[in-house]
Amino acid sequence: MSELVKNPQVMQKAQAEIRLVLQGRSRITEDLIYLKYLKNIIKETLRLHPVAPLLIPKECQESCKILGYDIPKGTIMLVNAWAIGRDHRYWHDAEVFVTERFEEITVDFRGTNFEFIPFGGGRRICPGITFAHHLPPGVTPDGFDMEEEFGMSVCRKRDLCLHPILHVGVEKV
Q1: For binding heme, which residues are annotated in this chain's numbering (predicted)?
Q2: In total, how many domains does the chain have?
């Protein structure tokens, strides 16, 4: 949500796509396959902000050599998903939130594309972006605080508080 608030043009495009697909309905479960731009937003968000920056440690089952380094059997290995998602060898403008980068490529977050492994495997994602959001008075998207606090999972250093506004035409549930 922080990236959407910081990039209002992306949020507006996503809202337009959702409203077009929903056509006034309030449930989108069977329509998710048609929300291609929303999927790109989710992928780009997970690329920059993986749920767990370091994936679950794995133990080497046999000795091997990686990039010239000898790795003995039993070594505990960590994969830095945060660094991979920001690696300039794989991503142009790696530090910039650009949803369009996923329009031409087919990488997925299920763990088969090693340049994009925000989870290291599958996980459900809830695309609850059918509401408009506004920043508090005096806060602009350019000055929006995106600082993160690192630990076992990455979270915002300061809490994000958004106020949803019901879109006209969406039936109440």
Answers
A1: 126
A2: 1
Q: Report residue 149: phi and psi, to 5°.
A: -115, 125
Domain membership flag for residue 102: yes
In a domain, 62, yes or no: no
Residue with tokens 């409203």: 19
| Domain annotation covers residue 138 | yes
Annotated ligand binding at 126? The verdict is yes
Provide the residue type at 49 as one letter. H
Range of the domain at 22: 1-51+81-156
Residue 155 has which token pair?
Answer: 């979270």
